[in-house]
């Protein structure tokens, strides 16, 4: 039978262990709503997918996951908030995407180190990018697009969701290969740029598939997609590879938090978001926007971000990219 001193030491050890245990192990995380910053206006494909993810993950987490839209600055305001104001307690998260990874290499004063200033939680999915033009306009195919650009230097305007976004850089690479001069017209979000083409403000949109309803409605014509294979939804649109360019552009994104998050909290969030990502309801939303699955668990997502940072740094140097 243990002595009184032994029992007392055991009780103190147990108490100390309980005090040292992280909050999530005691059922205290989350004990209030979680904020998920979406750095785009409501209505776009990423907003729809992340809103669905937030609603579904709340069922697992037992607390609401509230989406907060913070558009502007090419979709980097969420990252800015994480690095300047958010606590690493798991209650403030944001979408992580390629413009955030790229930004330190295209500005004079890097705002963050993407490999060390965030806690990368999970990779989710990407986009089906493509170029769409006004259905009754002069361009009916990619060949027409190139021919018009060559015959009218500096007159072919294209819209994207922001300066130095993945789609912006992809079009500039295509223009450089064809030796044509295009005029970039950035909008705050892909759905806004698609409407601008339909109304005649700009000649084409190069962005994610928020243009899809207007293509299906007959207002826009899709002249190419940037996925590895043709889209089952738009089988008439060739891929960039079919057009002679060895390019596949999907721009995967995920969810990250501030640096220094508790690994247990990170794991709990990852598991809840993964369950939501694989839920048929979220699969349906991704299918609506033709968004390819690009799931990465936490460790692999961190590795992906590190590899992508090296690539973006090399491309920024190669193309001499600067936005300030």
TrEMBL record:
Alphabetized Pfam families for the sequence: TctC
Keyword Signal: yes
Top-rank taxon, per record: Bacteria
Annotated signal peptide: 1-25
Keyword flag Signal: yes
Family: Belongs to the UPF0065 (bug) family.
Protein name, UniProt field: Tripartite tricarboxylate transporter substrate binding protein
């Amino acid at each position: 039978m243990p002595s009184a001193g032994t029992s007392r030491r055991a009780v103190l050890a147990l108490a100390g262990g309980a005090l040292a245990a992280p909050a999530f192990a005691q059922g205290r995380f989350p004990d209030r709503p979680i904020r998920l910053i979406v750095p785009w206006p409501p209505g776009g494909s990423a907003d729809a997918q992340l809103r669905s993810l937030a609603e579904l993950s709340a069922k697992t987490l037992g607390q609401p996951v509230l989406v907060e839209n913070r558009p502007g600055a090419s979709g980097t305001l969420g990252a800015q908030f994480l690095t300047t104001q958010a606590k690493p307690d798991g209650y403030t998260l944001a979408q992580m995407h390629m413009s955030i990874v790229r930004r330190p290499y295209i500005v004079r004063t890097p705002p963050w180190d993407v490999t060390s200033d965030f806690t990368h939680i999970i990779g989710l999915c990407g986009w089906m990018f493509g170029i769409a033009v006004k259905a009754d306009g002069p361009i009916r195919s990619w060949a027409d697009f190139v021919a018009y650009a060559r015959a009218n230097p500096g007159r072919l305007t294209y819209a994207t969701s922001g300066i130095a976004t993945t789609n912006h850089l992809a079009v500039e690479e295509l223009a450089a290969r064809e030796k044509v001069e295009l005029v970039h017209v950035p909008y705050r979000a892909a759905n806004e740029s698609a409407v601008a083409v339909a109304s005649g403000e700009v000649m084409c949109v190069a962005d994610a598939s928020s243009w899809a309803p207007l293509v299906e409605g007959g207002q826009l014509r899709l002249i190419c997609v940037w996925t590895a294979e043709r889209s089952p939804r738009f089988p008439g649109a060739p891929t960039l590879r079919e057009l002679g360019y060895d390019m596949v552009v999907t721009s995967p994104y995920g969810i990250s938090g501030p640096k220094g998050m508790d690994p247990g909290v990170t794991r709990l969030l990852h598991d809840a978001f993964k369950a939501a990502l694989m839920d048929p309801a979220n699969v349906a939303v991704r299918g609506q926007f033709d968004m390819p699955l690009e799931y990465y668990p936490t460790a692999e997502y961190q590795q992906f971000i590190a590899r992508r940072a090296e690539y973006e740094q090399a491309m920024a140097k190669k193309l001499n990219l600067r936005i300030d």
